[in-house]
Write a structure and sequence with these properties.
This protein is of the alpha/beta class and about 230 residues long. It has one domain (about 35-65, about 80-230): 3-Layer(aba) Sandwich (Rossmann fold). It has helices at about 50-55, 80-90, 105-110, 120-135, 150-165, 180-200, 210-215, and strands spanning about 5-15, 25-35, 40-45, 65-70, 75, 90-95, 170-175, 200-205, 215-220, 225-230. The strands form 2 sheets. A 6-stranded mixed beta sheet has the order 6-7-8-3-9-10, sandwiched between helices. Helix 6 (about 180-200) links the parallel strand 7 (about 170-175) and strand 8 (about 200-205). The longest helix has 18 residues, at about 180-200. It is globular, with a radius of gyration of 18 Å. The termini are far apart. The model has no long low-confidence stretch (mean pLDDT about 90). The structure holds adenosine-5'-triphosphate (ATP) and magnesium ion.
Length: about 230
Amino acid sequence: MTVAAAVEARGLRRQFPLDGGGTVTALDDVDLHIAPGEIVAVVGRSGAGKSTLLNLIGAIDRGYEGELTVFGQELRRLSERELARFRNRQIGFVFQSFNLLPGLTVGDNVMLPASFGADMPDVLVRRRAHHLLDEVGLGDRFNQPPLQLSGGERQRVAIARALLLEPPLLVCDEPTGSLDTATADQILQLFREIREKRGTTLVMVTHDPAVARSADRLVRLERGRIVGTTLEAP
Ligand SMILES: Nc1ncnc2c1ncn2[C@@H]1O[C@H](COP(=O)(O)OP(=O)(O)OP(=O)(O)O)[C@@H](O)[C@H]1O
Ligand SMILES: [Mg+2]
C-alpha cells in the first residue's frame, strides 16, 4: 500500500495542565504535511514546542487535539498496546541524550529494539546490528561498553539502534547537538544515505543553521505555531 503522507497534521494542538490550575498550550493549530522520504528540520527558540511536536509525531505522546496521522494511522485511535507496537515497527527515535544503557555492550544496545516483540530471528538481528555498526563506522566496537565511546560515537550507536528494525520514519531530537562540525556532517551524510537506500522519512529538531540548511524543508515554530519555513530568526 502506498501512503500519500508520512505525517499529516490538521489543527494539531497540545495542552498541558499546569500545577495550581490553568493550562499551557505547547502546540496550537499546527497544519503539517510530510511526504514519505522527506527530510524536515524543525527549528525555533527554546520552549517553542519542537520536542512536543516530535513526541507526538514519534507516537510517544498522544494527548493531542485535532488530527494527526502517521502513515495514515490516526494515533489517538490506538490503544496503549497498539501504539507501542506501532512505535516499535514504524518509528526510530533518536534522543538528544542518546539514552544508551551503560550496563549493556554497544552491540546489545543496538539490538535492544528487537527484544520488544519483533519477529526477527536472533541471528538476523545480530547480523543487522553488526551491519549497522559498520555503516556508522563503529563495526569494531560491538562488544565495548558505551561509556568508553566519545559523544559522537554514542550518537552514532543511538542512530544504529533507531534503524535496527528499518523503521520508515526516523525522529531525532537534536541529533547533532553536541557534535563538532565534521562529525555532524558525517551523521547528516549517513541520514541522506539511509534515505537513498531505504526511503526513510526524517524529522529532526536542530538549533544548528548548517544542519537546518541540509534538510529538504524547514518548519519554524514560534510559541507553538508554525510561523514559516525560513532560516532567519524572527
Ligand atoms: N509535560 C509538560 N508539562 C507542562 N508543560 C510542558 C510539558 N512539556 C512541554 N511543556 C511546555 O510546552 C512548551 C514547549 O516545550 P518543548 O519542550 O516542546 O519546547 P522545545 O521547543 O523543545 O524547547 P527546547 O529547544 O528548549 O528543547 C514549553 O513552554 C514547556 O514548558
Ligand atoms: Mg526540546
